[in-house]
Amino acid sequence: GAGVSQTPSNKVTEKGKYVELRCDPISGHTALYWYRQSLGQGPEFLIYFQGTGAADDSGLPNDRFFAVRPEGSVSTLKIQRTERGDSAVYLCASSSSGRGNIQYFGAGTRLSVL
Amino acid sequence: KQEVTQIPAALSVPEGENLVLNCSFTDSAIYNLQWFRQDPGKGLTSLLLIQSSQREQTSGRLNASLDKSSGRSTLYIAASQPGDSATYLCAVFGTDKLIFGTGTRLQVFP
């Protein structure tokens, strides 16, 4: 596609539920990143994929968060037992090879946990 | 641990002014530094990328400088326009991820 696509654009869920957020990167980009942005803050790193493998998952806040990229393209961020504090905008970015190349961002998924 | 700070947090100026946005970072071991623009409810758009070996980059009315040794970068916007109104984010690329500042919210009024 022309850019990074994220779905859904908005997700409202109840505390304790499970959610999946999808990211479709730019075709051919091997590097994929997930960030989380709270209101009034800059994005914070969650996880980085190079191809199918998670090269760095040090930003995942706890074991309720998990992400996959099984075929090296689309990635899914999964959050179990959601909490109100998980409410934020989740941003996905891709780049041609990681390692300092320009990252192209999607519009994000706004997650609201009630 | 790398920390990125942006000053000012918010700025409101009349159209036509030249602006300087500041970014500082605590660890000079960076791969590059990027400036992004974020419009409300939208994702981030990359404006300029400065490699660690470079001193500045220019794109149209935008000029970004980098002084790695002192941990500083500035984004200069010439002849500001209402369409420049947005949040501007600075981010440094360390080992394998971007570390962002909290942004400068810019409003340019006619």
Description:
The complex is a heterodimer of chains A (114) and B (110). Chain A has no helices and eleven strands. Chain A has strands spanning 5-7, 10-13, 19-24, 31-37, 44-50, 53-56, 65-68, 75-79, 88-95, 104-105, 109-113. In chain A, the strands form two sheets. In chain A, strands 2, 4, 5, 6, 9, 10 and 11 form a seven-stranded mixed beta sheet that branches. Chain A is globular. With 110 residues, chain B is mostly beta strands. Chain B contains no helices and eleven strands. Chain B has strands at 4-7, 10-14, 19-25, 32-38, 44-51, 56-59, 62-67, 72-77, 86-93, 98-100, 104-109. In chain B, strands 2, 4, 5, 9, 10 and 11 form a six-stranded mixed beta sheet that branches. In chain B, 35% of the residues are buried. The mean pLDDT of chain B is 94. The interface between A and B is medium-sized, with 25 and 25 residues.
The largest β sheet of chain B comes out as: 6 strands, mixed
Shape of chain B: globular
Count of helical regions of chain A:
0
First-to-last CA distance of chain A = 33 Å
Oligomer: heterodimer
Considering DSSP H and I runs of 4 or more, what fraction of the residues of chain B is helical? under 10%
Structural classification of chain B: mainly beta
Largest interface: A-B, 25 and 25 residues
Mean pLDDT rating of chain B: 94
Structural class of chain A: mainly beta
Distance separating the two termini of chain B? 41 Å
User: Tally of extended strands of chain A?
Assistant: 11
Q: Write the H/E string of chain B, N to C.
A: EEEEEEEEEEE
**What level of helicity do the residues of chain A show?**
under 10%
Roughly how many Å is the radius of gyration of chain A?
13 Å
Task: List its traits.
heterodimer, A: 114 residues, mainly beta, seven-stranded mixed sheet, four-stranded antiparallel sheet, 11 strands, 0% helix, globular, B: 110 residues, six-stranded mixed sheet, five-stranded antiparallel sheet
